[in-house]
Amino acid sequence: MKRFLATALLLGCAVSTANAATSTLSFADLGTPTVNTGNINTATVFNIGDLVSTSGAGFFAGLPNQTFGAVSYNTTVGTSLSFSSTLFGTFTSTSITPFNGTTPGSISAFILGNYTAGTYAGGGGEVSGPASFTISWTQTPPSNGGISDSSTLSTPPAPPPPGVPEPASVVLGLTSIAGGVFFHLVRRRRSAKAAA
Predict the structure, then answer these.
(1) I need a surface site. Which of 70, 148, 157, 163 has the fewest CB within 10 A?
(2) Which residues span the domain enclosing 32?
(3) What is the largest CA-CA distance in the chain?
(4) Mean pLDDT of the region 138-153
């Protein structure tokens, strides 16, 4: 029992992280974005034509615009998005969650991942760690018109939008289930010993 409580406490501490100041970097698509089905609301593969950083805050403040070129991601493959430059560093996704896809001609994705700092140190020194990349897509007219997108990278990760489960909530839920199973097994074992 003591081991279980120590493990639960350790997991709780691991899930609780200090609120560090958020640094953000905005992006524009200067190319021609496309999707695999031609309709952003039914697509699974999204192609950013020419990803370019535009403005930053926090340790991204003053970062010169960075051109990353064509970048793609697949909503069914959580690790499919990655982009990098020497100054910026690298962002690599770990999960991709589409949201707001019920309005024709509009969809977004909340992408969690890891940011590894580059050589830029103008905004107080970049810090590697967890990050989020939120991208919004529009299509006018819906289903067959021109496509555009814009995005923002946040580190530490931005809070998930409504309808997207927060990673800490998922861990907390799984921990609760594991605790319930543990207590059920302990009670079952005690009942079996008492009956014997």
Answers:
(1) 163
(2) 21-163
(3) 74
(4) 96
